[in-house]
Amino acid sequence: MNASKLREVLSLGKFAVTAECGPPRGANAEVINKKGTLLKGYVDAVNVTDNQTAIVRMSSIAACSHLIGMGIEPVMQMVTRDRNRIALQSDILGAYSLGIRNILCLSGDHQTFGSEPGAMNVWDIDCMHLIHTVRKMRDEGKDLSGFELNTAPKMFIGAVENPFADPFEFRVLRLAKKVAAGADFIQTQCVFNMERFKEWMRLAYEQGITEKVHILAGVTPLKSARAAKYMATRVAGMSVPDSVIKRMESAPKGKVSDEGFKICLETVHELRKIKGLHGIHIMAIEWEEKVSEIVKAAGLFPR
Amino acid sequence: MVENLKVVSATTFKPENAEYSKPKITLFHCINAISSLTDLVNLNCDITEIQMPCSSMTREVFLLRAFEAGADAVIVIVCPKGTCRYIEGNIRAGKRVARMKKLLDEIGLDGRRLEIFYIPQGDQTALNDAIYQITDNLAALRSNPTA
Amino acid sequence: MIVGEQKPLAEIKDKVSSYSKLLILGCGTCVKTCFAGGEDEVAILASALRLSFRKDDINIKIEELTIERQCEDEFIKEAATAVGRNDAVLSLACGAGVQMIANRFARSPVLPGVNTTFIGVLEKQGLFTEKCLGCGNCMLDIFVGICPISRCSKKLFNGPCGGSQNGKCEVNAEIDCAWQLIIDRSKSFGQMDRLITYIPPKDWRSSQAGGPRKLVREDHII
User: In terms of Cα–Cα distance, which of A84, A275, A103, A126 is closest to A183?
Assistant: First the structure.
């Protein structure tokens, strides 16, 4: 695997599809194999999270390496919470040498939420710095200190944006800032509040940002009314309209997840109409089997 | 500032143990809340009266030192909420007493040995009730184990 | 000022339990202003400890002394005789003071009675908040007077993160999102373009990460 397949798909103007894979809380890669098998062929790339929610899991770089072994293209997520600029750059070099071609740069969830709340956090650099660093390594062939690398890691650089966090007017500014720092693609927080998302996309489009960066909208199929309510109230930066919660609550027993699936498909359908949106990022957490169904039902298969 | 009142005779307090001496109560009060303690109901207890020019002079260290001096219980009498002559005195007294009650629990003496009462000037009944309440607490708590 | 909180009574009692003559040494500066270790707090703690030990039938002798500051030798030497006649010193100063006492009175066991927490301000009566981490290279002009190092839970230089909601931090709804404050203030100055400017990574050498620091003023050394 020599170049980023995700980049290829996007540069050809195709509507991209990515999904997510959470590594196991243990040293056995079997979980990754299972999830990978469910996703292979249905998506252009698979994100591998980096100790998400600050819960200790198999490292992203290792899990990505396992996916490559299965012939699946990974997107290695990197948070700046746990590693300083030395370790991060080191892992970028290592990742590239293992065949990883896509990096998603994030600041990361605070460690007080995770399995080691007493741990010291790092945050030597933030996600903006990380984007900038990866770009410098790629385009100038130098690390942050200015040292010339023997081989530059030619990474496809991603970042996240959350159109649903506050303050709204700043979210487009921040998007522009990430693009200026070097982001090639953006994956957003999952879309339930279509109105707000469309507004954010409209502003991005008007400011010409959608021509400089590939935006992929996050989608999540809801499994239950409880999941919907949990997301609405307990997850920071998530916007779930009451209408969605009502639909999930009023769905007949045994048909609730079907309703969630339906809402997801409707969302994808709406998203495909948005100017400047170049793909979707399906986050079917612990419901990876749904990804293939969504992709097929949305008319996005074969890839 | 410390004045010992004359001992009053027993009516309601019934000691279980013959050796159990009269409960020693230190009574801090703001002079605006109580002007005189002479009409206190007859109770078999030793009351040490400590007058304060303002309830904000209810200082934590004095409350603790009262226990060090052998008090079985300490009560603080201040004016009711909203009527403090110096506006905040009774509020501050209340907060400090609350904090010291917790500390008394941590010390192992039990916070119920310390109580604050908000009593309008001249309300003899309320004053007597305060004494009743604290002696009630003491019936369960017994004498100061550190004395 | 430096802010700290007195340790819980049980913890202090445990620390001093092996000594029969204890000096509780208070400090009249920072810890006095945050009600952790000033003269009043020394008196309360001494009384509480005596009562608590007496309940265990232990008669501990506690001496109480408060000096102006425990971070300057000029004041510390005033405590010399008191330290000398006791078995141990329970210092209610901040960590700096405790260490200075321990250093000065090298043969006396010195115990901390206060947990030093942060450099902060008294926002209003009874409320102290953290404001400064001592990074050694102040950039408060760039951040319009709000420090993202001490006040952003993630030390973001190009914030906010996606967890900022209703002006509050994702870690704890009682924490104001520092970046929301920076944005609001930038807006009030009509300087929103500040927020698009890329702020590069910090050189942490000026902070504690570069090793314990010192300040030498030759002009004051005779």
Answer: A103
Which residue, among C47, C58, C59, would best test binding to B if mutated, counting the most B CBs under 10 Å from its CB?
A: C47
Residue of C nearest to A163 (CA): C162
Contact A92, A151 (CB under 8 A): no
Number of domains in chain A: 1
Lowest mean pLDDT of B2-11, B72-81, C70-79, C129-138, name the range. B2-11
Task: Give the whole-angstrom CA distance, residue B76 versus residue A154.
Answer: 75
**Which ipTM value was assigned to this complex?**
0.92
pTM: 0.91
Query: Taking Cα atoms as reference points, which of C124, C127, C114, C131 lies closest to residue C32?
Result: C114
Q: Are C138 and C119 in contact (CB under 8 A)?
A: no
**Mean pLDDT of the A161-179 span:** 88
User: Which subunits sit against B, judged by 3+ Cβ pairs under 8 A?
Assistant: C
Query: Could you give the domains of chain C?
Result: 2-118 (3.40.50.2300), 135-209 (no CATH)
The boundaries of the domain holding residue B96 are: 2-141
User: Cα–chain-centroid distance for residue B58?
Assistant: 11
- Residue C96 and residue B122: Cα distance in Å, rounded? 53
C41-92: pLDDT as tens digits: 999 999 999 999 999 999 999 999 999 999 999 999 999 999 999 999 999 9
The span from the CA of B118 to the CA of B112, in Å, is 16
Cβ separation of C51 and B68 shorter than 8 Å? Answer: yes
User: Chain A residue with minimal CA distance to C149?
Assistant: A123
Q: Which residues pair with A103 in a beta bridge?
A: A76, A157
Can you point out the beta strands (E) in chain A?
Answer: 16-21, 45-48, 74-79, 102-106, 156-161, 185-190, 214-219, 277-282
Do the domain assignments include residue A189? Answer: yes
The alpha-carbon radius of gyration of chain A (Å, integer) is 19
In a domain, A294, yes or no: no
Residue ranges making up the domain that contains A55: 5-221+275-286
Domain with residue A16: its CATH number is 3.20.20.220
Average pLDDT (A182-209) is 96
Dihedral, C170, C181, A124, A143 alpha carbons, nearest 10: 120
Each residue of A32-76: pLDDT tens digit? Answer: 999 999 999 999 999 999 999 999 999 999 999 999 999 999 999
Query: A166 and C159: CB-CB below 8 Å?
Result: no
Residue B118, domain CATH: 3.40.50.960
C-beta neighbour count of A34 within 10 angstroms: 13
- Closest chain C residue to the Cα of B96, Cα to Cα: C44
Interatomic CA distance for residues C180 and C185, integer angstroms: 8
> Helices (H), strands (E): how many in chain C?
8, 7
| Cα gap C154→C160, rounded to integer Å | 9
Inspect the interface and report whether the beta carbons of B106 and C51 lie closer than 8 Å. no
* Å between C209 CA and nearest CA of chain A: 10
CB within 8 Å: C162 and A161: yes
Q: Chains touching chain A at 3 or more Cβ pairs under 8 angstroms?
A: C
The radius of gyration of chain C from alpha carbons, rounded to an integer in Å, stands at: 22
